[in-house]
Amino acid sequence: xxxxxxxxxxxxxxxxxxxxxxxxxxxxxxxxxxxxxxxxxxxxxxxxxxxxxxxxxxxxxxxxxxxxxxxxxxxxxxxxxxxxxxxxxxxxxxxxxxxxxxxxxxxxxxxxxxxxxxxxxxxxxxxxxxxxxxxxxxxxxxxxxxxxxxxxxxxxxxxxxxxxxxxxxxxxxxxxxxxxxxxxxxxxxxxxxxxxxxxxxxxxxxxxxxxxxxxxxxxxxxxxxxxxxxxxxxxxxxxxxxxxxxxxxxxxxxxxxxxxxxxxxxxxxxxxxxxxxxxxxxx
Length: 283
Fold this sequence. Notes:
- The protein is of the alpha/beta class.
- Helix content is 42%, strand content 17%.
- It has an eight-stranded parallel sheet.
- Helix 8 (180-193) links the parallel strand 6 and strand 7.
C-alpha cells in the first residue's frame, strides 16, 4: 500500500503566494509522517503556475536526513524534466498526459501526439538518470469538453505507455467526474491486463462522495492512492471551479478500516493536519 501526499496539488491553484519558508516548514513536517511519496513541487513556467515558482528554493530547505519518503516533482515538458532530473534528491518525475485533447492543450500547451513524443523522451531521460517516470492519465474518468472517453480509450493509452516502458500510471479524476461505476471497471480491467504496471488513483471529490470512490478503487485492486490533507486543491487548468483533492485523513481512516498497515506516525500526522490549517488559513 502506497500513500502519496500531494501538497503541490493543494497549493498550485492558490492565487495568494505562500511564502517559501512556510512551504518548506510544512513539507518538512510532512516528511516526518511516513508517506511513501511526497508530491512536493513542480518545475513548470512561473507564468503558468506562479505559486510554484520557488520549487528549487523549497527543495533546498528540505531535511531528508531522517525520512524514507521519496520526492516527486511534476513537469509539463522535457525542459522541466531535465531540470528535475538534475536534482539527486528527487526520485520521481511526474507528467500529466491527458486523454482529452482539449485538456492537454489547456494544461501543457501541446497536442496529445506531441505529449506522447515528449513523454517517450522523458522516459529515456529517467532511465539514464536513475529516476522513475510517473504518468498521470488526466481526465481519466471523463471530461467536460465532449472529447472521446471510454475504458477502451484508457486501455489504448496504457498500452502505449507500456510499450514505452512506463511502470507507474495514475488514473486522474481531474475534475471529480468519476463514480464507482467508472472507477471499478477501469482498475479491474487494467490491473490484470498490465501486471508489471503499478496503477494509482488520483481522485478529486466532493466531501460526500469520497468513501464510495476510494472503496471502488481499493476493492478493484488499487494499492496506490494520492491525497492532500484537508482535501485542499484542484487543477486550475481544468475548470473555473476547483474540485478538491481526496482528503488524506479520509484515505487513512478508510485504509485503517481495511486493516492496512500504513506505518504512519500518528503524532506527526496530527501535527501536519494542524499546520495545514494555518498554511491554508486564508484560502
